[in-house]
Amino acid sequence: ASTSVKLNTGADMPTVGLGTWKSAPGAVEHAVEFALKNGYKSIDTAAAYQNETEVGEGIAASGVARATIFLTTKLDNPDQKEPLAALESSLKKLGTDYLDLWLMHWPAPMTKGEPPLADKTHDWLDTWKEMEKLFQAHPDKLKAIGVSNFSVEFLERLLAVATVVPAVNQIELHPSCPQEDVVEFCTKKGIVVTAYSPLGSDNSPLLANEVVTKIAAKYNVQPANVLISLQANKPNVTVLPKSVTNTRILSNAVIIDLTEEEIAELQAIDKTHHFRACHPSWTGWGSLGFPDCQ
Ligand code: A2P
């Protein structure tokens, strides 16, 4: 697998980056610092993860030059009406002047109250138009914009009006949630797919899956390496394994080449063991075009 994938902006996005969904303040600073000191070049966070300040602290503590890091964060659902303020807030918390990639976290504007509810007064397509304007007006602050959790149906609605094609669509991707239709569509449109939860998130049954463990034994690697490599082997895909554990942060960066046969075997796991680790827990927005995302 190559070490980076080219975005439609011309920039290179590292194939493997550190995920920080569920990485809590107190642990994430160290994880980010450790990853950067040990060769990771890409860090992914989101305003919704409530750890941007600590991710920024980890970047600063690493001493690694900002220019050599690919940094991604995401616009939170309740901030869709005021993206500029949200962007400024993320930049400030992360302690940086610019983002390599800024994503619309979900095509689902929400209210700011508790619990957040679907905000039917706002159209996420208008949010994208604002993100496009910010991208064009502030090339010093935004190197690329994209989306996250977009199904084919939502991507089609976006592309019908977009003047900037999203550089990336970040989605849940692992053998039990292969989303091959989304990967195929994005590849056709020149949109890089970033895989989150490549292991299947916390307590994933995939780590003990017999197909996964059989292939791991053959190459003398951990099951996690097989799952991360499955994504990294795809030409148009980057991958974000999450860990706050030093030994895993190190080992997760090891990519192996899988055979066509092994890839097919892994991709078939979903037929008998389908699950989604992340689905919106809010009500009011329906399935967002994902049949099993209620
Ligand atoms: P931890 O962060 O405590 O190390 P995903 O990337 O699919 O979201 O999975 C993240 C989950 O998998 C976390 O619970 C993380 O635990 C765990 N994890 C990360 N790397 C490995 C690994 N190499 N082997 C087993 N579990 C791992």
CATH class annotation: Alpha Beta
Please give the CATH architecture: Alpha-Beta Barrel
Shape: globular
Relative strand content: 5-15%
Tally of domains: 1
Strand order of the largest sheet: 3-4-5-6-7-8-9
The number of distinct β-strands equals 9
Low-confidence residue ranges: none
Structure, explained:
α1 packs parallel to α2, α2 (52-62) packs parallel to α3 (83-94) and α7 crosses α8 (223-232). The protein contains eleven helices and nine strands. The protein has a single domain (11-272), classed as NADP-dependent oxidoreductase domain (TIM Barrel). Helices cover 35% and strands 13% of the residues. Adenosine-2'-5'-diphosphate binds next to α9.
Q: Layout of helices and strands, plus pairs?
A:
Elements (H helix, E strand, L loop, with lengths): L3 E3 L5 E3 L13 H10 L4 E3 L7 H11 L7 E6 L7 H12 L6 E4 L19 H14 L7 E4 L3 H8 L8 E5 L7 H10 L2 E5 L13 H10 L3 H10 L4 E4 L5 H6 L8 H8 L1 H4 L22
Parallel strand pairs: 3-4, 4-5, 5-6, 6-7, 7-8, 8-9
Antiparallel strand pairs: 1-2
Helix pairs in contact: 1-2, 2-3, 7-8
The chain binds adenosine-2'-5'-diphosphate.
Adenosine-2'-5'-diphosphate binds next to helix 9.
